[in-house]
Amino acid sequence: MIACTCYISKLEKHLTICNARQQDQPPYIEYNINTPITNAVPRILLSEIPGDIIIQVINKVNSLYDKFIKSNIVSIPERVIHAAVAPEFNETDRQESSRRHLRQTSSLLWLVEEENLVDNETCYVELGAGKGQLSFYAHAAWCAGAGSSVLLVDRATLRHKRDGRLRGRGAARLRAELAHLALHRVPAAATARRLVGLAKHLCGVATDYALRCMTSEGVLGKTRGVVIATCCHHRCEYSAYVGNRHLLDMGVTAEDLNAMLGLVSWATCGDGRNRLHRQNKPASDEHLATTETDHSNSEVGCDNNLPDEAPPEQLKHSLSREQREQVGRRAKALLDWGRKLYLEEKGFNVKLCHYVPIGVSPENVCIVATKM
């Protein structure tokens, strides 16, 4: 309970603005509408799992990756920077870290167009919108005189939002948790003929909430497709993950998945040591430190506070850093494969692709789904 203190003479006015006051929720908020009712599985750190169990999970990840994913994840050829993004990309004083983000945005715009998801009277829903960069360029590319709009959804209130420039021009922003968003009750979505879900680096469990949101009752019939660049798989949760049943059919148990949520951190966090350990790294780790800095800079807004997922001592000698990174990337791809199977069950054509080179972003896998 938050306690406020104010003068009695100012109480009436204060009650109209106080953040601690009880407020009625808007009709599009329904608690846990996109969260399944299942028993939570306690998260166990990788450092607490016996090494032989981790080896078994690694072997399973490698086997499933080779069988199902290796030949079914495509790399998108690099394209020229999209016309909507080019003016800012070509600014002479633009920093390279900013250009990396613009390259990713450009690639996502091209993907939407190449999958024929651009049409009149479409509402482009950016899920986990942050400052709204993707929606800003989507609006410039597709919404002029087309009866289309952009809808930005984020749980936080941020400053310097790009969509502030679009006020009154077919853009709306909601502050809402994706777990609780009943999209069919949002006016911008309810009045649109078509919906397309977009996201750039949608972290962990938020991707699963977003997929349920875009395929929920009252929304699925309008959803033409989704284009979601995933990231931060270590923040997934077994209870909310959409691909549990599909991976179980492939032999991945709840315990295996728990271990995988630790393995995925090996893909992008260098040697697997947590930040506290890296503060005292020796000079010989200079190259590694540079690599980690580049990765974190390319994922602005993502959570890089990984749990301590360093491998047990016996694995440090049997797996090189490069091998651990490969295992991490394969585990991430397997989690996205489960999401692919979920969307196919909902009636979509789905593919996984590397939408930018790994040098642009280590989190470079995108889920592209279109209606059959």
Automatic annotation (TrEMBL):
GO terms for molecular function: tRNA 2'-O-methyltransferase activity; zinc ion binding. The keyword Nucleotide-binding does not apply. Signal peptide: none annotated. Keywords: Metal-binding, Methyltransferase, S-adenosyl-L-methionine, Transferase, tRNA processing, Zinc, Zinc-finger. It is an enzyme of class 2 (transferase). It catalyses: cytidine(4) in tRNA(Pro) + S-adenosyl-L-methionine = 2'-O-methylcytidine(4) in tRNA(Pro) + S-adenosyl-L-homocysteine + H(+); cytidine(4) in tRNA(Gly)(GCC) + S-adenosyl-L-methionine = 2'-O-methylcytidine(4) in tRNA(Gly)(GCC) + S-adenosyl-L-homocysteine + H(+); adenosine(4) in tRNA(His) + S-adenosyl-L-methionine = 2'-O-methyladenosine(4) in tRNA(His) + S-adenosyl-L-homocysteine + H(+). Residues 283-297, 314-324 have a biased composition (Basic and acidic residues). Its EC number is 2.1.1.225. Residues 104-369 form the Methyltransferase TRM13 domain. InterPro entries: Methyltransferase_TRM13, Trm13. It comes from the Eukaryota. GO terms for biological process: tRNA methylation. Belongs to the methyltransferase TRM13 family. tRNA methylase which 2'-O-methylates cytidine(4) in tRNA(Pro) and tRNA(Gly)(GCC), and adenosine(4) in tRNA(His). This is tRNA:m(4)X modification enzyme TRM13.
